[in-house]
Amino acid sequence: MADIPARTELKVTTGPIRGSRKIHVEGHSTSSGQAGVRVAMRAVDLEPSSGDPPVSLYDTSGPYTDPQARIDIMAGLPELRRDWIRARGDVEEVAQRDVKPEDNGQLGPDRSGGVAPFPNVRKRVLRARPGHNVTQMHYARRGIVTPEMEYVAIRENLGRQQAADAIRDGEDFGAAIPDFVTPEFVRDEVARGRAIIPNNINHPESEPMAIGRNFLVKINANIGNSAVASDVASEVDKMVWSIRWGADTVMDLSTGRNIHDTREWIVRNSPVPIGTVPIYQALEKVGGIAEDLTWEIFADTLIEQAEQGVDYFTIHAGVRLPYVPMTAKRVTGIVSRGGSIMAKWCLAHHKESFLYERFEEICEIMKAYDVAFSLGDGLRPGSISDANDEAQFAELYTLGELTRTAWKHDCQVMIEGPGHVPMHKIKVNMDKQLEACGEAPFYTLGPLVTDVAPGYDHITSGIGAAMIGWFGTAMLCYVTPKEHLGLPDRDDVKVGVVTYKLAAHAADLAKGHPAARAWDDALSKARFEFRWRDQFNLSLDPETAEQYHDQTLPAEGAKTAHFCSMCGPKFCSMKITQEVRDFAAKQEAGLLNNSFVPSEGFPERSRGVEGREQDVGEAKSPLQKAGGAGGGPIDLAEAEAGMEAMSRAYNEGGRELYIGQGRREHD
Amino acid sequence: MADIPARTELKVTTGPIRGSRKIHVEGHSTSSGQAGVRVAMRAVDLEPSSGDPPVSLYDTSGPYTDPQARIDIMAGLPELRRDWIRARGDVEEVAQRDVKPEDNGQLGPDRSGGVAPFPNVRKRVLRARPGHNVTQMHYARRGIVTPEMEYVAIRENLGRQQAADAIRDGEDFGAAIPDFVTPEFVRDEVARGRAIIPNNINHPESEPMAIGRNFLVKINANIGNSAVASDVASEVDKMVWSIRWGADTVMDLSTGRNIHDTREWIVRNSPVPIGTVPIYQALEKVGGIAEDLTWEIFADTLIEQAEQGVDYFTIHAGVRLPYVPMTAKRVTGIVSRGGSIMAKWCLAHHKESFLYERFEEICEIMKAYDVAFSLGDGLRPGSISDANDEAQFAELYTLGELTRTAWKHDCQVMIEGPGHVPMHKIKVNMDKQLEACGEAPFYTLGPLVTDVAPGYDHITSGIGAAMIGWFGTAMLCYVTPKEHLGLPDRDDVKVGVVTYKLAAHAADLAKGHPAARAWDDALSKARFEFRWRDQFNLSLDPETAEQYHDQTLPAEGAKTAHFCSMCGPKFCSMKITQEVRDFAAKQEAGLLNNSFVPSEGFPERSRGVEGREQDVGEAKSPLQKAGGAGGGPIDLAEAEAGMEAMSRAYNEGGRELYIGQGRREHD
């Protein structure tokens, strides 16, 4: 055990993300009388030449990127929500359930090498006082705005003080995204089940976040797949690493040995909600024999994990006996592990699933700790061929039925979705889910839009994820390049997270989320003005962006040059655009508005889109904000000087013109 | 010069793609009386246990992957089309235009190190005899089915002998994709301008291919961006490397020194159509001063490149003087290099573009060599903010006008498109292009769906590319991870090509291309049956797939195991599915058809989708073809033996259950 802390401290990545500052936005006291909350975000300062204020970005990385925070993996994170939870007066402290050998899969001799127990395990844990319900949905339905809800509201606004600067331009397919998120709006979304705030009362370390169609699209990263059960350090490191790059929640899918202790290390050190699939551990407790599973063992596992602080459980209660035969003619049968465990149980006993039959008893456990349901899609398709088939949709409608049951208990619910779906079959998945599950948040794995690219399934699934996120999916479960092939390493985790973050942001843009567009515009403007450092710092992955740049351009010089080497001064795009602006200014209105386009050329709908675009351009273009069409903050003297310098280099260099580099594109 | 051959022969990658065989499908004599054609494809042989025939895949790699072919970069490729071209009796041989120093940018002293001229330059080249027109469109409109058209037809069918095995299941937005492609269908598509076959009569080395909405979606790779003008070897290598991984055409965007000689090396060794942007070279000829460009210099450049065999020219004739001011208020101005050159020229002279005014004269040149137009979108948006604005669509409608002019001359035309477009604004680009340009093939760059992920723009653009490909775009211009940051190296080229290949295939699937689905089903079935080698060999990138697999699974054993280490024998999905199938067989029809779903649960439209899916499942599932619902070719004895072996390993290994690996997915 002695080596655990050393290895852990060595391996966890801390410190600010390159070019970002940790900031905290203060809230105001809420209707529940709590003191205001402090919401962590990151700010990117721009070069003075931009004339623009810092850009605020959503920050999932927790204290690990805060230079002020002292990180001690052995002690766990500070309990941000401790007082909020206790102030509600509806919880009681009880002795934590004793850890049994089988909780760690200790049946027979342990060949795993063992895992050091977390040094700071709580002896006493919280649960709802008898007759009480501690779910955020329960408070919301009683009109209470919790500090968690206020935290979420401030967080979703990304530091905007009001809606004035919101660029609304998108197609949200009937979502109800507000210009500005208020705590009351959050309460209402949670109350009607359109959003969840997964935060177990035994995970006070978590920073509240919302998963819902009317909020920013979230992403989940999976860890704990390690075949070396004893390597807790690398699992904790993967968790910290994945939230650094943007994972909003993390699922611990650990199996096998030491599963209980591994989870404790992860939960105590996680500022984001942790999800699990309890049936995995229950299976360990019966030696891996699916047919030996019982309700009692499963329920005991739920309580064990709820006491540790797991924030949401994947439960495959929709895999019903009559649906199992519907998978018989599939190309890839049942690919969900939890789904096949339950299918196996149902067939072995020729009985209905105990998860389905005991569902209300499960609700009683969930609401005593505020663990959210993630209703698993155990019959999801595992291939393009099986997409949208009878078994998949039969289960989906059962998940809708279970959602209504959970809501009777004020339990928070999200619904898991596929999987493998070709592009033309994606939207119907969203439409059916909204209809079957009463707008409960949808949480999908991809979907992969083709099966022919193993090794690139972060991309095949990123395509489907961006699309279904646009259509209304609230959280996207990442897929790494190793999907279907092997275990993701640290690099795979980063690539998976960044890929899903860009897919989620693309969805926010397309939905017209008011806080999404400003980020793109800031980066685009930095690119146009050759503010290379701002371009890197505003990137999802500043380190990779700068590294790629420096491979072909002289590092320091090019970062400040007012053009990139591909253009040369003869037609630096910025210079030409300045000429265009001067020319435009001289034009008489007639030429500017000349109608060269046949009126039938622009159908009503399209003109609508354009109309908005034009208005937006007029009112909100960063260049305009920075000083009108005249080019704003561009320092022409400085630019001319740069031109002069480059002009010499250009002539000495043989008057070569390069392309394909910097912000200028092919042809 | 002496070292060129050595370096070249060293660097070009030859030999079969892992797991694939080069095959040739024979055609029959055509209406034009030609002998039948031999169409190259690659075949992937499956393990005998599959019971399935080899899978035929589209092959862009040319002779380089043919063990029978002798590759000599110094001599160039054999002239596949030589006799077809001459047999038409409408071409004459003329002396090739003398190469001038300025063709290679030799103004002033050469500091580039120089480039060895291609050793095998033709002294005499072909052009149409006076009064003749040698475009494929001209033949098509006269009812002639050329060998090129027959080659395309066979190629698009991927070796299928008839339409019987076609799985039709998709949304094609009004395209007219046939179950089976006939030479007559190709002729008709070319005649009406919905498809082009870019193959200059002076590029007889090329293997005919079609770009059109009713054919497989194609991808283009850009090369020639090297800042080191003398490194011809690496440019030729990049061309060969990009077609190995699936590039259907290659654009040579070389600039600066030795541009003429570099192009000759590339064209003579390319089995795919080569595209260029002639304005780049014209600009070299006037020392890089845009305002010094003249029609005479541009026309001379077109003839120079047409004689070398360039198959399509990007020409920015839609950048008209009145549109230039429309870009004044953009965040990123004009990002197309060709577009900014012409904008600069128009402003400097306050005159209409000579490309626009002399367009019919350009057509006269194009039809004398059958060079296809790729009408450039010089005013495309360079950022999310500028997408779908007035300038972009003004130019698009002018490109439509120019398309109709080119068609008067029977010139082949495709239209270039954006660029940077958020998801909700992509489809209107396709709709407007179809309407404005009379269904001429659309050729887009991405589009990128967000600007916040430099370093990952192959993915941000791959998302947009898959979507617009589904909507009807005929060819997708790749974007590499270095876009906006630097020059792509060999690895970037491969990642860009594979990413775009998977996007194009996802589009084919969604459109319901009859030849697309079989590939996914073959790989899905191999995955389900744990035929690891087949899974690798069927992948877009077999080498990466196997490498990722071997990083975590024992190489040889796992590749033949009938399950992957993540499940263990206790619930191998294949075994469970077998049980499910036996169970299902025993079920009385009543239970199978039990109606658990509220009828209002399935709106008409959705039921339609499902209906097709069900029918497809019943009639066409590979498993069905392989022997009905009983599990087909699965050898249960072999499986049991494997189970037994794994069962021992499983118990000895401490009964660990792993997940996240192989074909089983998260939860």
TrEMBL record, chains A, B:
GO CC entries: cytosol
Cofactor needs: [4Fe-4S] cluster
One annotated GO molecular function: zinc ion binding
Stored InterPro entries: ThiC, ThiC-associated_dom, ThiC/Bza_core_dom, ThiC/BzaA/B
UniProt function note: Catalyzes the synthesis of the hydroxymethylpyrimidine phosphate (HMP-P) moiety of thiamine from aminoimidazole ribotide (AIR) in a radical S-adenosyl-L-methionine (SAM)-dependent reaction.
Biased composition (Basic and acidic residues): 602-618
Assembly information from the UniProt record: Homodimer.
Name of the gene encoding the protein in the UniProt record: thiC
UniProt-annotated binding residues for [4Fe-4S] cluster: C564, C567, C572
Pathway info: Cofactor biosynthesis; thiamine diphosphate biosynthesis
GO terms, biological process: thiamine biosynthetic process; thiamine diphosphate biosynthetic process
Region (Disordered): 95-118, 596-640
Top enzyme class: lyase
Protein name per UniProt: Phosphomethylpyrimidine synthase
PANTHER family (UniProt xref): PHOSPHOMETHYLPYRIMIDINE SYNTHASE, CHLOROPLASTIC, THIAMINE BIOSYNTHESIS PROTEIN THIC
Residues binding substrate, per UniProt: N222, M251, Y280, H316, S336, R337, G338, D377, G378, L379, R380, E416, Y443
Highest taxon listed in the record's lineage: Bacteria
Similarity annotation: Belongs to the ThiC family.
Organism for this UniProt entry: Sphingomonas sabuli
Residues reported to bind Zn(2+): H420, H484
Domain ThiC-associated residue range list: 17-92
EC number(s) given by UniProt: 4.1.99.17
Cofactor note text: Binds 1 [4Fe-4S] cluster per subunit. The cluster is coordinated with 3 cysteines and an exchangeable S-adenosyl-L-methionine.
Catalytic activity line of the entry: 5-amino-1-(5-phospho-beta-D-ribosyl)imidazole + S-adenosyl-L-methionine = 4-amino-2-methyl-5-(phosphooxymethyl)pyrimidine + CO + 5'-deoxyadenosine + formate + L-methionine + 3 H(+)
Alphabetically ordered keywords of this record: 4Fe-4S, Iron, Iron-sulfur, Lyase, Metal-binding, S-adenosyl-L-methionine, Thiamine biosynthesis, Zinc
NCBIfam families linked to this entry: PRK09284.1, PRK13352.1, thiC
HAMAP family membership: ThiC (MF_00089)
